[in-house]
Predict the structure.
Amino acid sequence: MVLGHEVGGEITEIGSTVTSLQVGDLVAVEPQKTCGKCAFCKTGRYNLCPSVVFWATPPIDGAFSEYVTHPADMVYKLPEGMDTSEGALMEPLAIGFHVSNQAEAKTGESAIILGAGTIGLVTLLALKARGITEVYITDLVNYRLEMAEKLGARQVFNARNVDVPGAISEMTGGRGVDIVFEMAGSSATTQQTVDLVKREIGRAHV
C-alpha cells in the first residue's frame, strides 16, 4: 500500500464547483474524508466520524505519490512564504496543539513528554506556545533528543541510560510533573506515566 498522511502539495486541477482554491496554490491537506452527515460531523467533531476514511490506514492508500485527489474543504491554502514541506507539518502540529489544549496546559506548570519523535517535538512547541517553560522529554535516540534541546526542552533524558522516574522525582523534590504526555506508544512508557505525574492534581495523556 502507499504510505503518507502528512501532506503538503501544489494544486494542479480543481473541480468546477471549487471556489476556495486555485491552480498553483500551495496547500496543506487534512488527510481524511468524512460523511458530513453524522452527529459527530454536524457538531464539528468530524474526527470521530464512524465512516472516516483516513489516508495510509490499511487498506486505504496514502499520499506518497505524485498526484492525489481530495475534497476541497479538507485542503487549506498556505500563507505566503510557507513551502509544502512546512505545509506537511501542519497535521502533526495540529495534534500537538490538540493534546496541549486537552490537557489544559497553563503557564507555570511542568510537563514531560515520553517520546521525541515528530508528535513529541510538536507537542513541545505547542506547550512552549502556551507559556510552559519546564518541559522535559525522553527518547531512546540521541539525535531526536538533540533536536528537542534545540527546540527548547528544559532537559532531555535517554531512557536507555537514565531512570527517568527517579530523575524527575529528584528534580521536582519528589512531587512529579503536572502533565505527562505519552507519545512513544510503548507499554513501558505508558506504565511510567503514573510514576511521573503529580498526585491528585496531575494529568496524564496517553
About this structure: The longest strand covers residues 134-139.
